[in-house]
Amino acid sequence: MKDAFGTPQSLLVLGGTSEIGLATARRLVARRTRTVWLAGRPSPALEEAASGLRDMGADVRTVAFDALDPEAHEESLGKIFAEGDIDMVLLAFGILGDQARDEDDPLAAVRVAQTNYTGAVSAGLVCARALQSQGHGSLVVLSSVAGERARRSNFIYGSSKAGLDAFSQGLGDALYGTGVHVMVVRPGFVRSKMTAGLEEAPMATTPEAVAEAIETGLRRRSETVWVPGALRVVMSALRHAPRQVFRRLPL
């Protein structure tokens, strides 16, 4: 259960090497979170991430998880919940892809969609059912402002995030009143390994800033969090811009 300060005592990060996921885990462990599960593909990076959190005093366990293997999600994630209640699940996995390459390689484009959307639908539903069964908990989903309106420069990635965002909002409505809280997080450009080498967009942010916004959103029981907050207004204007105007914007 959450402590008196609203901090989850147990955390499951789906995408255990995600920079945003780990920044959030570090922030929550520093606040009082004691048990952390890192779910991801077995790798030295996953073990290094776990070691870093253990050094902060958390009880950290790793579990094999692959977004592209939804048939295994029920079993792998079910084992985690069988160990005890999870106060917060952070769905943090996803890939950016390479727009130019993926347009010429449909299978690569499909991999982006399967990871960011199909894998998230599967894992999200498995975790939502487990949270509902225990009667409490938060499911935090990392979406993106890219899902607000598809842009020429990254419409494959953006469309996958649009699907994830719509799914998560609907899931939140379905779970309303059950004791389970669903929060959708929409960061803008995040300075990370995933975006290294890309031209930085206006109002760029960091994994640590996203983590801070997630913590604040949890405390407020927010349903949607924009990072930075000013993007809410910007994206509202872009979403309603006429298509002929939108096409001419340097996006």
UniProtKB/TrEMBL annotation:
Pfam families on file = adh_short
Q: Per the UniProt record, which EC number(s) apply here?
A: 1.1.1.333
| Domain of life, source organism | Bacteria
Signal peptide range in chain numbering: none
Q: Which UniProt keywords apply?
A: Hydrolase, Oxidoreductase
List GO molecular-function terms, semicolon-separated.
Answer: hydrolase activity; oxidoreductase activity
State the similarity comment: Belongs to the short-chain dehydrogenases/reductases (SDR) family.
NCBIfam families attached to this UniProt entry: PRK07904.1
Q: What is this protein called?
A: Decaprenylphospho-beta-D-erythro-pentofuranosid-2-ulose 2-reductase
At the highest ranks, the source species' classification is:
Bacteria, Bacillati, Actinomycetota, Actinomycetes, Kitasatosporales
